[in-house]
Amino acid sequence: MIVPVILSGGAGTRLWPLSREMYPKQLLPLVGTQTMLQNTITRLSEVAGLASPIVVCNENHRFMVAEQLRQVERAASAILLEPVGRNTAPAVAVAALRALAAGDDPVLLVLPADHVIREAAVLCRTVEAAVPFARAGKLITFGIVPTGPETGYGYIRADKGCHLSSVTGHLSETNGQKPMTNDSFANDATAYAVIEFVEKPDLATAQRYVASGEYYWNSGMFMFRASRYLQELEKFAPAIVEACRQACDRAVPDLDFVRLDARAFAACPGDSIDYAVMEKTGDAMIIPLDAGWSDVGSWSALWEVGERDGAGNLVYGDVLTRDVRNCYLHAESRLLAAVGISDHVVVETADAVLVVHKDRVQDVKEIVQQLKTQGRSEAILHRRVFRPWGSYESIDSAERFQVKRIMVKPGATLSLQMHHHRAEHWIVVKGTAKITKGEEVLMLSENQSTYIPLGVTHRLENPGIIPLELIEVQSGSYLGEDDIVRFEDSYGRS
User: Among the four 45, 259, 344, 471, which has the fewest Cβ within 10 Å?
Assistant: First the structure.
């Protein structure tokens, strides 16, 4: 049995303003109609013996993750909620502990949720080719066959004189001889010993790496038995294992999720799998993968994997161009017009516009840091904010008032709540609303409205079969989202 472990905890700051802390790139449809998370799961459909995935994600993303899995009809065996980010080694440790607690010792296939792989069939065959090595106790990483001297990736050096080959599941060792291959796989089923992991190189070093034929891009994808990973992690980073065990032992179920113990997990050292285990273990092996991979770690990388027109432009949304070459142009909420530019990225959203040369896209994260330093919400939230019951979008605001557009999914219910500092006026523009206001219950349809005075307990429900949309006008001395006192909530929020 192969259990996919989907790591969905990143923030994707280099793809701001589309990717933000509360709605990061793995939850966005950046390539195609499915989101990155959905693509990560559905592309594995041809792998034999695949079990339901374990997803590890930020607790703030939990409802969006669950909803996106439901949309592609892929139920997770567990969605583990990280109270804080602690890098990949602890994330995989809690997944391994969860898998072992189910009474088996499965092979784990560890995949980041935000990668692009164009040739899913090649990935599936390579994954199946790796299974015999993992079952034999090896810790496998998938090394991307480089297409050029890329300076934005880490590299892994393979020992081409020391490799293992699988033939119908039988593991045999060869040293310096022609490797045996499994003819049932289209991909090379050879796993090479790992000599070293190296950080992102400069251009000259990257050119030397590629020319040698010994180096592969570090994909961040792994395969091993759950028990073997924990054994090696305990050998080299026992504090991580102990903290993760405590976090799992004290975990509590919450609807469809598993909440790791916050105090124990926060005390866990934060390290990557590479640093904590793979660079130290004597059983690290690398299997080459040539399947059109990209980590989509920047706007230029997204431009490279997308479909471009005859002028080399990748265009999304309402865009007009004149004498524009090799640009990424993305418009979400209004017309974007570009004239006489080349090699630029222009991204427009409802509340932000990014303009950057493709040579400087790695510096976008510095803009995000400036926003955080200034305490600006654009680093964290989009204008449209998603909630388990639907979404809301800020339309206008000024001193003592704010206007929002609210969408409630069919059958969904907001919490029973009240506010200390604001009153609200609701106008239904689509669908039917069931409204609790103090002791009164109202049914409102299109063009009808009601007023919620300050301090009055209230609740909004959508009893219909189409989305409910309404305009909310807030007025008061304080309009922050933290001015909510919840008395009842279907989603376990305090």
Answer: 45
* Beta partners for residue 166, in sequence order: 171
Beta strands at 284-289 and 139-144: parallel, antiparallel or unpaired:
parallel
Q: How does pLDDT run across 265-287, given as a tens digit for each residue?
A: 999 999 999 999 999 999 999 99
184 or 59, which is more confident?
Answer: 59
Q: Could you give the CA distance from residue 453 to residue 476 in angstroms, rounded to a whole number?
A: 10
Three-state secondary structure call for residue 374: coil
What is the Cα–Cα distance from 44 to 120, expressed in whole angstroms?
Answer: 7
Buried (b) or exposed (e) across 190-201, using 16+ Cβ within 10 A?
Answer: bbbbbbebeeeb
Contact (Cβ atoms closer than 8 angstroms) between residue 64 and residue 29 = no
DSSP 285-325: EEEEE-S-EE---SHHHHHHHS---TTS-EEESSEEEES-B
Round the average pLDDT of the chain to a whole number and report it: 92
Is pLDDT above 90 for 481? no
Q: pLDDT of 352-364, one tens digit each? A: 999 999 999 999 9
From the DSSP assignment, how many helices (H) and strands (E) are in the chain? 11, 31
- Cβ atoms 98, 245 nearer than 8 A: no
**Distance in angstroms (rounded) separating the CA atoms of residues 43 and 121:** 8
**Kind and range of the H or E element at 369?**
helix 364-373
How far, in Å, CA of 463 to CA of 287, rounded? Answer: 53
- C-alpha–C-alpha distance, residues 236 and 229, integer Å: 11
- Rounded Cα distance, 432 and 441, in Å: 13
Alpha carbons 176 and 160: distance in angstroms, whole number = 8
Distance between CA atoms of residues 52 and 69, nearest Å:
11
CA 487 – CA 494 distance, rounded (Å) = 8
DSSP sequence for 238-302:
HHHHHHHHHHHHT-EEETTEEE--HHHHHTS----HIIIIITT-TTEEEEEE-S-EE---SHHHH
Per-residue pLDDT tens digits for 427-451: 999 999 999 999 999 999 999 999 9
Give the model confidence (pLDDT) of 121-171 as tens digits: 999 999 999 999 999 999 999 999 999 998 889 999 999 877 776 544 444
Taking the C-alpha atoms of residue 403 and residue 48, their distance in angstroms, rounded to an integer, is 51
> What is the percent of the chain with per-residue pLDDT over 70, rounded to a whole number?
95
User: For residues 359 and 167, what is the distance between their CA atoms, to the nearest angstrom?
Assistant: 45
Task: Yes or no: say if 214 and 192 are a contact pair by the CB < 8 Å rule.
Answer: no
Residue 370 has pLDDT above 50, yes or no: yes
